[in-house]
Amino acid sequence: MRMRLCALFSSFLLTVFAAVPAFADQTDPRLDHLFEELRVGDAIRAEENVSRIIEIWTDAQSDTVDLLYVRAELSANNGAFDLSLTLLDHIVGLAPNFAQSYALRGSVRLTQNDRAGAIEDFSRALELEPRQFVVRTTLAEILLAGGAKREAYDMFQKALEWNPHDENARDRARQLRREIDGQEI
Questions:
Q1: What is the DSSP string of 4-19?
Q2: How far out from the chain centre does Cα 13 lie?
Q3: Percent over 90 (pLDDT), the chain
Q4: 14-28, 45-59, 108-122: which has the minimum mean pLDDT?
Q5: Please, is 59 exposed, middle or buried when counting C-beta atoms within 10 Å of its C-beta (0-12, 13-18, 19+)?
Q6: By its UniProt entry, which InterPro entries does this protein fall under (predicted)?
Q7: Degrees (nearest 5) of the Cα angle 96, 98, 100?
Q8: pTM, full prediction
Q9: Collapsing DSSP states into helix, strand and coil, what is residue 98?
Q10: How many angstroms separate the CA atoms of 24 and 129, rounded?
């Protein structure tokens, strides 16, 4: 009897939490100011601004989604990729406009050699949050690995529009620019 009550209560909680919509992290009004400061500010504050942006991106404004996201991230960091993907699938179902869940699921899929799934998730993350410079840099690397130098260069440039202080993206873009100079573009 007690087990049945626990199962019913768990089912009730899932129903209640599923009915509570999660807000999209990318709509937070603080982001516009942070991105403007990141784009025109100096490198000294850039790291702090990037951290604040990522902190906002990872806040779904739903306790349930936030908890699942933290667990998915921890699972991925500990190599439990199947568990991470399962949790991320649930998050996407609960909060289909939470861009960061697609970004993380794309990263996990990439580690599992599911390039098509990763690209699909990264594309969805960019639809929801076009300023997602981390996703753009990752997509640039995927494009480069596939031999699409011009497209990779363009993607690095898009990432740099939002975070001009990313030295790695800037160096990769510079290197690609030298490689494609003289070639038909």
A1: HHHHHHHHHHHHHHHH
A2: 28
A3: 70
A4: 14-28
A5: middle
A6: TPR-like_helical_dom_sf (IPR011990), TPR_rpt (IPR019734), Ycf3 (IPR050498)
A7: 130
A8: 0.81
A9: coil
A10: 9
